[in-house]
């Protein structure tokens, strides 16, 4: 009865979210600064694509 299924910690190497290479601990979850910047670029482009509409609160004054 030695069917112990221990988690494969050695296989727990995470992959870069951009290029799926081995992650560098300095730049995780990315493999390099380059991929880090690519992801940042994605973020910023996504942010800038969102139109920022300033909605002014309409104050309705009832005249009686
Ligand atoms: Zn990468």
UniProtKB/TrEMBL annotation:
It comes from the Bacteria. InterPro entries: DNA_gyrase_inhibitor_YacG, Znf_NHR/GATA. Keywords: Metal-binding, Zinc. SUPFAM superfamilies: Glucocorticoid receptor-like (DNA-binding domain). One of its GO terms (biological process) is regulation of DNA-templated transcription. One of its GO terms (molecular function) is DNA topoisomerase type II (double strand cut, ATP-hydrolyzing) inhibitor activity. The keyword Metal-binding applies. The keyword Secreted does not apply. Zn(2+) binds at residues 16, 19, 31, 35. Interacts with GyrB. This is DNA gyrase inhibitor YacG. It comes from Caedimonas varicaedens. The lineage of its organism: Bacteria, Pseudomonadati, Pseudomonadota, Alphaproteobacteria, Holosporales. The gene is yacG.
